Amino acid sequence: QVQLVESGGGSVQAGGSLRLSCTASGRTISNYNMGWFRQAPGKEREFVAAISFTGVSTYYSESVKGRFTISRDNAKNTMYLQMNSLKSEDTAVYYCSAVSSGRKTATDIAHTSDGRDMDYWGKGTLVTVSS
Questions:
Q1: Distance CA 35, CA 100 (A)
Q2: Which of 5, 79, 82, 105 gives a 20 to 30 Å CA spacing to 56?
Q3: DSSP string, the chain
Q4: How distant, in Å, are the alpha carbons of 20, 32, 42, 105, 118 from that of 101?
């Protein structure tokens, strides 16, 4: 079992930045492709970014491309999401998730609009962007 815990959420003004972290315990994440998803009030969960287990390949939704950067440090068992130029429409609960590299690729994660069939999920961290 892998336990995922998100941190770094908070309130920020439009144009500001936040860095989310997702720390794993229970197992090393080095064999897991991982992703960030978000769910805004009244909306369905949506894909934000994905990263391969090596960290070499990354994918982003069109809405965050050029503003967000996903990364990981397998030695620290942690994944990150650097969010710059935040907009009010980025307000949401952000979730990290992981899936065995043998079951899904990072590309697969990027094409899974709502993150179904991922192996593990964190409980989420709230990001509020005020305009």
A1: 12
A2: 5
A3: --EEEEE--EEEETT--EEEEEEEESS-GGGEEEEEEEE-TTS--EEEEEE-TTS--EEE-TTTTTTEEEEEEGGGTEEEEEE-S--GGG-EEEEEEEEETTT--HHHHHT-TT-TT-SEE---EEEEEE-
A4: 23, 5, 32, 6, 11
Tens of pLDDT, residue by residue over 8-55, are 999 999 999 999 999 999 999 999 999 999 999 999 999 999 999 999
**Tokens linked to 96:** 């990290």
Which pLDDT band, with edges at 50, 70 and 90, does 116 fall under? confident
Question: Do residues 17 and 67 touch, judged by C-beta distance below 8 A?
Answer: no
For residue 84 the two structure tokens come to: 């710059």
Neighbours of 81 (CB within 10 A): 26
CB atoms within 10 A of CB 17: 11
Q: Which H, E and C letters describe 40-57, residue by residue? A: CCCCCCEEEEEECCCCCC
- Find residue 49's DSSP bridge partners: 36, 60
**Structure token digits, residue 11:** 């309130």
